Amino acid sequence: MLLTKLYGHCLQLLEGTNIEVLAKKYVADWMIPYTTLKYIYVPIKDIFEHWYLMVISIKDHIVYHLDSCLQSENITHRIG
């Protein structure tokens, strides 16, 4: 069940689902409420054994993808 929820979340994120929609759907399953929470840090290891970090800004509703190996021609900026 846990793996199914995580997989569904990843697919929706890759498909470009709005962050507010994702928050409404998944926050209750993964986090207890915090009134002072500013960022969520999500370390991710891909299938090639490479690690990167997703940082979610609660206030700004922005997801940052931090990757030391990411090349500028592979960057896609999304809004909303």
Automatic annotation (TrEMBL):
This is Uncharacterized protein. It comes from Trifolium pratense (Red clover). The lineage of its organism: Eukaryota, Viridiplantae, Streptophyta, Embryophyta, Tracheophyta.
